[in-house]
């Protein structure tokens, strides 16, 4: 089944404790992206990657890191999480160009205390 | 800079009423793509439709229709004869491929509640 998977689905952590949210897709998509969803703000793009070893900042990259060492995986790293990073995070992937729809993962709900 | 505005935060309609969700976008790029996604209460994001900047044809898919007007930078979504299953948050999104970057900008979403 074609899908985007994220782990963990739920995470409660404390300020400053490094964490990684994994994202994997099995559709051989070149483009992958991370978003955060907050009430009243919609989805905001954090980082995206157009292919292996090619990443770029979205609109809200501060406090996040990403890497793309393999085509299928695009982990989101929070080196020192803070409470303002409490949010619902979505990973997405798509084939090819900007004109193609994105396939989203199920979301990761992160709470930073 | 890109921007997508969904001015309607929440809309409530009674079942079988028609409802239109507004989306206004801003971009300097001449080639761009517009999307609508649906997020039902279960939380997943589901693709509904895509339009490119060169195709202003309106589209109808069952009870759903979309009106794209470049003159007003709008890409509105109409649900005819709404049903309870249409209750969801709907997002409009703008995607460009410009100067080596491929950002995607979403609107803040419109929460639609269809009351039986």
Report on this model:
The complex is a heterodimer of chains A (113) and B (116). Chain A has strands at 4-7, 10-13, 19-25, 31-38, 42-51, 54-57, 65-66, 76-78, 87-94, 103-104, 108-112. Chain A is an all-beta fold. In chain A, the strands form two sheets. In chain A, strands 2, 4, 5, 6, 9, 10 and 11 form a seven-stranded mixed sheet that branches. The relative contact order of chain A is 0.33. The model of chain A has no long low-confidence stretch (mean pLDDT 95). In chain B, the strands form three sheets. In chain B, strands 2, 5, 6, 10, 11 and 12 form a six-stranded mixed sheet that branches. In chain B, strands 3-9-8-7 form a four-stranded antiparallel sheet, with no helix packed on it. In chain B, strands 1-4 form a two-stranded antiparallel ribbon. Chain B has strands spanning 3-5, 10-14, 19-21, 24-26, 32-39, 46-52, 59-61, 64-69, 74-79, 88-96, 104-106, 110-115. The radius of gyration of chain B is 14 Å and the shape is globular. By secondary structure, chain B is mainly beta. Chain B has no helices and twelve strands. The N and C termini of chain B lie far apart (41 Å). Classes of the chains: A mainly beta (113), B mainly beta (116). The A-B interface holds A 31, 33, 35, 40-45, 48, 50, 56, 58-59, 88, 90, 92, 97-104, 106-107 and B 6, 9, 32-33, 35, 43-45, 47, 50, 52, 91, 93, 95-97, 101-109.
